[in-house]
TrEMBL record:
Protein name: Tripartite tricarboxylate transporter substrate binding protein
Signal peptide range in chain numbering: 1-25
Entry keywords, A to Z: Signal
High-level lineage: Bacteria, Pseudomonadati, Pseudomonadota, Betaproteobacteria, Burkholderiales
One Pfam family recorded for the sequence: TctC
Domain of life where this protein originates: Bacteria
Record flagged with keyword Ligase: no
Protein family: Belongs to the UPF0065 (bug) family.
Keyword Nucleotide-binding: no
Length: 327
């Protein structure tokens, strides 16, 4: 005769086994259950920092948890990138990566991460509007005239950058190679001093973020010739691209995008991606991005993964051809 407690256990056991997988799925789907950190590879107060903090505020209601922004600047964003690559792939530490993620391995002697293998792409948040600009006294008004001037004037022309191995350096080297022109590179410790010497006429050409150059462009001390992206910028719709105004095929798109460490669960990536898409629809946020010189993109994880691979390969070729190395 079967004892009553044995029968009860037999009935309960299958139910327990059936519920357990569902309980695990519910636990996985509960992400996030604590604050999410976004690591910014720049100092506080810059465009990338301001943008990430504004985005974090909009992510909070969609994720149901606070979003904490931490700054880890240094070594051309390598410090922050390497730090996030080594974190647990649980979705609680994310990186607001910059285009230097893929540039750094080409210009630094050693980098502790692989931009393709060591991260899980979530979304390319925005492109950073960069412009090709010249000192207002240089007698050129478009890219074609600049190329002609560099080829025929017989005068020595210099360009400034935010530092050796930076995106502004490689953008100019790509331009030189494609246009078949020569310009001397004058590296600075950051965009501000490089821009100051452009305004003062100590250098004649510069590739720079529109956000930092805008006051000088508006004052007339610097002349913007074109944006560096393949398509015109929503921020500067009347300014042509380098490609359409004298150098077909030229494209350089500095960017900012969300990454998780490699191996992040698909459901976590899906959740953060969906929350970001919702946040990027906010009209006030979109206006803030525009004021910072950022064009919103918000693509899929798959599209972002393809982009990172291609972008890293592109700048590796430019760095090798030019011999560019980080300071």
């Amino acid at each position: 005769m079967t004892r009553p407690w044995i029968a009860a256990l037999a009935l309960a056991l299958p139910l327990t086994l059936a519920v357990a997988p569902g309980a695990r799925a519910a636990d996985a789907g509960a992400y996030p259950t604590k604050p999410v950190r976004i690591i910014v590879p720049f100092t506080p107060g810059g465009a990338a920092d301001i943008m990430t903090r504004a985005l974090g505020e909009r992510l909070r209601p969609h994720l149901g948890q606070p979003v904490v922004i931490e700054n880890k600047p240094g070594a051309g964003t390598v410090i922050a990138s390497d730090y996030v690559a080594r974190q647990a792939p649980d979705g609680y530490t994310l990186l607001m990566a910059a285009s230097s993620l893929g540039i750094a391995p080409a210009v630094f002697k050693t980098v502790g991460y692989d931009p393709v293998k060591d991260f899980t792409p979530i979304t390319l948040v925005a492109s950073v509007v960069h412009v090709l600009e010249v000192n207002a006294r240089l007698p050129v008004t478009n890219v074609k005239e600049l190329i002609d001037y560099l080829k025929t004037s017989g005068k020595s022309v210099s360009y400034s950058s935010a530092g050796s191995g930076t995106s502004t350096h490689l953008e100019a080297e790509l331009f030189k190679t494609m246009a078949g022109v020569q310009m001397a590179h004058i590296p600075y410790k950051g965009s501000a001093p490089a821009l100051n010497d452009l305004v003062g006429g100590n250098v004649q050409v510069m590739f720079d973020a529109y956000a930092s150059s805008a006051p000088h462009i508006k004052s007339g001390s610097v002349r913007a010739l074109a944006v560096t992206t393949a398509k015109r910028s929503a921020t500067l719709p009347d300014l042509p691209t380098v490609a359409e105004s004298g150098l077909p095929g030229y494209e350089a798109m500095p960017w900012l995008g969300l990454l998780a460490p490699a191996g992040a669960p698909p459901e976590v990536v899906k959740r953060v991606h969906a929350a970001t898409q919702q946040a990027l629809k906010d009209p006030a946020l979109r206006e803030q991005f525009r004021a910072l010189g950022l064009d919103i993109i918000g693509n899929t994880p798959e599209e972002f993964a393809t982009f990172i691979k291609q972008d890293a390969q592109k700048w590796a070729k430019v760095a090798k051809a030019s011999g560019a190395q980080a300071d």
